Amino acid sequence: MYVGGIYRTIYVFVTVHHLMAAQAAAPNVRDNLIKMVGKNEQVPPGGKDNPFLQEFLDIHSRPKVVLETREHSMFNLKMDESFEFKPPIRKAPFSSTGEPWPMPAKYVSNKDKLLQLNTASFKLKILNKNCDILEDAIKRYTNLISSHVPEEHYEFIYNFDEKTRAFREHEMQDKYQHVTEMGDLEIHVYAKETEIEDKPRFPHRGILIDTSRHYIHKHVIRDVLDGMAYTKLNVLHWHMVDDNSFPYQSEVYPKLSHSFSWFGYPEIKSTCYTRNGKAVRGPIGPINPAKNETYEFMSNLFNEIFDVFPDEFVHLGGDELHDSCWATNPTITAYLEEFGNIPQVEARTSNVQNYINKAIGFYFSRLIKTLKDTAEQKQQRKNFIMWEDVLRNTEKVPSESILQVWMGQPSNVRVLNSKGYKALYSSCWYLDNIEQYPMWSKYYECDPSPYSSDAEEKGRLLGGEACLWAEFITTDTLMTMMWPRSLAPAERLWSPRNVRDIGSAARRIEEQRCRMINRGLATGHISGPDYCIRPNGEYLRKTSEHTAENKVPGVLDRVTYHS
């Protein structure tokens, strides 16, 4: 039984495609289509009541269908050449079964030998060194294994023959009716006999989230961490604050998060001037590099931050600085001439950008020294990560700093290395850059290294990060934008450089997508129309065990509608 109006809408849409494909070879079929669509009447799916469909099938022989890959970005169903009707049917690759993501350094699997797992007695053992992190991980993954969902995938036969279609539907109906009428089933979990030796290619395998442009709920950030754990990503680059907002609640400077970021403290902001020398009314300009109060402010703020975040590395940013205001302010230009040896006259030339670059260099040089002194006073070791832009403006970047490439080729890594700096790479992994077709294959084929061997890159290129900027991302869309596309850079940063088979990756990434969904993570599409076998009823309990007050009602429930 079907609802006529809904079925008619779908059928008319399909027949329009039929019309475009069949009009040259079958004018009589085309005429029938025009008449049928024009009448806008309900059309049954097949049989003697639909002579059009029978005529269509008589004219066009039954096709042979294979899955083809087009430029590694689209996966389509390809019709046999003898079949005149070739509809553009898009389909994702069929999922692998029991394959890992990311691919280990050594992976040998005997598909002909299965081992039955007794989930009640199955244990994971830690050899040699142990720590609380490993013990907690063992608990999480033991729960995951005991809750394993057996998956069943079918190599569907695509066919326009109504008789065959009806037979297969009846066959599947019988099968599932038989299963549902059985009593409680004893489910056995099997694993292929597999040998794995593993190690990461790079030590730094990161992902950037941005909580300054849109509010991101903390339960979503925890989900991001779960996804990272499932894919062997180990660094969360948290772009917490920006000019848009300051969601870090500072005890030293509380107005930062109460009054539009830095504008809560106007005494450290710059005043901009017009060409006529008049002060500009309205929004206050960038941070003032010519005030000692600015650097005292930063020292006090980071004194607090260093305690809240005990990590050795702090990212200072440094990209896309818009500081033309500095060149218009006579107090700032006079200060920079006296203490930075930057002539004021350069601020009034046609090449004002050169002056601004020098001014940015002065500010960052003094800021880095200020923060280094702050850390030393606290007897803490702190080093800095910065975007590659900073080095273009000043040479006074400590040699132990790490520079991150975001708008250049891997050759930029070699340039930074030649100057004595270690590097990270992100240019090709900007997840918020959206194209019409799936981009994961581009992410997958991008290699961050300009070197031809592991020995050359070791200690020079530390790894990379996938970046998800949030100008157009919200707490409701972050996870489905991040996953499963982040799986591609995750494998590139973990697996050996010779793991490049896009066909194998296409099948394994489908399986990992379903794996993450079945573990309760909101996960988007990846290669086109596909499906995941789901457990009946509620989702598996999430390993992070979020408390009720930390959840937004309904967010996780919406995951069940993904397909």
Automatic annotation (TrEMBL):
Pfam families hit by this protein: Glyco_hydro_20
Domain annotation Glycoside hydrolase family 20 catalytic: ranges: 202-264, 265-496
Gene3D superfamilies: Chitobiase/beta-hexosaminidase domain 2-like, Glycosidases
UniProt catalytic activity: Hydrolysis of terminal non-reducing N-acetyl-D-hexosamine residues in N-acetyl-beta-D-hexosaminides
Domain of life of the native organism: Eukaryota
UniProt keyword annotation of Cell inner membrane present: no
SUPFAM superfamilies: (Trans)glycosidases (SSF51445)
Enzyme class: hydrolase
Record's keyword terms, sorted: Hydrolase
Family, per entry: Belongs to the glycosyl hydrolase 20 family.
PANTHER family reported in the protein's UniProt record: BETA-HEXOSAMINIDASE, BETA-HEXOSAMINIDASE A
Name this polypeptide is given: beta-N-acetylhexosaminidase
Species name: Mya arenaria
